[in-house]
Design a protein that fits this description.
Distance between the termini: 36 Å
Pfam families: SpoVIF (PF14069)
InterPro entries: SpoVIF
Helix content: over 70%
Oligomer: single chain
Number of domains: 1
Order of helices and strands: HHHHH
Number of strands: 0
Organism: Bacillus methanolicus (strain MGA3 / ATCC 53907)
Number of helices: 5
Structural class: mainly alpha
Protein name: Sporulation protein
Length: about 80
């Protein structure tokens, strides 16, 4: 991808593209049936998005992924964090 594209995304979102790419790489071989792994991903996404996640919200997201079979990706978790219902 064009380096200018990444700079543009960083400028608009305030999110470092290296952090997102590092997260994406770490997800490739992760065990998403493991609660500890899922919690780590949630915390990392929260940190990257600069959106704190309460223990209650973290628990809801974990249960949603494990029990409801929700897909685990940056967009899904970010949406759950931002919705905070």
């Amino acid at each position: 991808m064009d380096n200018g594209f990444f700079k543009n995304v960083e400028k608009k979102t305030g999110v470092n593209m290296k952090d997102i790419l590092d997260l994406a790489n770490s997800l490739q071989n992760a065990n998403f049936n493991d609660e500890k792994t899922i919690r780590g991903v949630i915390r990392r996404v929260s940190q990257i998005a600069k959106k704190p996640v309460s223990k209650e919200m973290e628990e809801k997201i974990v249960q949603s992924i494990i029990k409801d079979g929700k897909k685990l990706d940056f967009n899904s978790i970010s949406k759950m964090i931002n919705d905070k219902k």
